[in-house]
Amino acid sequence: MSAQAQPAPDRRRTPVEALLRWWPLALVAAILGGAIGFYAAEVGPVTYTAEARVAVGAGDLTSGAIAGFPLAAEQLASNYARYVNDQMLTGDDAAVAATPIPESNVIRIIATSDSSATARSSAQQAADKLIKAVNESSSTSGKSLLDSYQVAVSSLTRAQQSLTAAQAKLDQLTAAQASAAAIRAARARVVKATQTASIEEVRKDALASKYQSSVTSSTSSKLVMVQKAVTSSSDRSSRLQRYALLGVVSGAVVALLAANLLERLRRPRKRLRSA
After folding, report:
1. CB burial class (10 A; 0-12, 13-18, 19+) of residue 107?
2. What angle do CA 143, 218, 63 make, to 5 degrees?
3. To 5 degrees, how large is the angle CA 159–CA 162–CA 166?
4. SS3 label, residue 194
5. Could you write out the DSSP letters of every residue in 79-140?
6. If pLDDT is split at 50, 70 and 90, which confidence band does 259 have?
7. Among 39, 62, 241, 257, whose Cα sits 20 to 30 Å from the Cα of 271?
8. Helix 236-274 crosses helix 23-43 at what angle (to 10 degrees)?
């Protein structure tokens, strides 16, 4: 009597094989997960970014107008950018920062908010305040030097008048054949008045040169608006892509677990039927 044929052992499917067997479940789970992720990104907050640009150097100033202007302007742009922070804003619903564009005299002022209008107005507000602060500081410095120069001119005028009077007195005493002591005293006053006038003239010339340099430097260090604030971007598209992809992956993982669970539940029933 021939031996009875034994049934082939029931091979356990791998997780991937189980998922492929239950592919409709995987497809539905992936689509559902992607839809949930897309919806979550759509209803969630969106961050908008707005940008304004200011430049160091006013008027028709060119790189040849001042020696070393390109390097100096780039350094000034880097320094001015450090002054931009959230304290420039009147509200607390936006964040603002500034970065200099490498190898240029342009500063990018960037504001972020969950509102496009708020981001745009915050960037413009920060740009306006930075321009005002820098330019007013330059004007104040120039005015102070001009005031000092005018005082020096007045001091030089008085010193020259004193020298003229001292020289006239010496000439008068010499013509009158005054005593030697009186002439020596008058001559000493002339020498002292000459020294004072020379010092005041040097001081006046130095202030004139410093003021002229300040005016030129002030022009080159002032800020001008080169681009008013505009909304440059938002993270909506990237959020939609990221959340949708996360939803699809999550759905696939859930489908993988469910497919393997169904396979485990199916094997005992198959064994009972075989028995």
Report:
1. buried
2. 160
3. 140
4. helix
5. HHHTT-SGGG-SSSS-EEEEEEPTTSSEEEEEEEESSHHHHHHHHHHHHHHHHHHHHHHHHH
6. confident
7. 257
8. 150
Query: In sequence order, what are the residues at sequence separation of 6 or more whose Cβ sits closer than 8 angstroms to the Cβ of residue 227?
Result: 51, 52, 53
How far, in Å, CA of 127 to CA of 121, rounded?
10
Task: Name the amino acid, one letter, at 203.
Answer: R
Task: Please give the residue that has the higher pLDDT: either 60 or 253.
Answer: 253
Give the separation between CA 35 and CA 43, rounded to whole angstroms.
Answer: 12
Compute how many other C-beta atoms are within 10 angstroms of the C-beta atom of residue 254.
16
Q: Is 6's pLDDT higher than 50?
A: no
CB of 111 closer than 8 Å to CB of 48:
no
The rounded mean pLDDT for the chain is 75
Residue type, 52: A
Q: Exposed/middle/buried for 169, CB within 10 Å: 0-12, 13-18, 19+?
A: middle
**Structure-block tokens of residue 44:** 């969630």
CATH number of 47-234: 3.30.1890
For the chain, what are the domain ranges? Answer: 13-46+236-275, 47-234
| C-beta atoms surrounding 73 within 10 Å | 22
Q: What is the pLDDT of residues 64-92, one digit of tens each?
A: 444 455 566 677 777 777 777 766 666 66
pLDDT digits (tens, 9 = 90+) for 182-220: 888 888 888 888 888 888 887 877 777 666 666 555 555
Compute the C-alpha angle 8/9/10, nearest 5°: 115
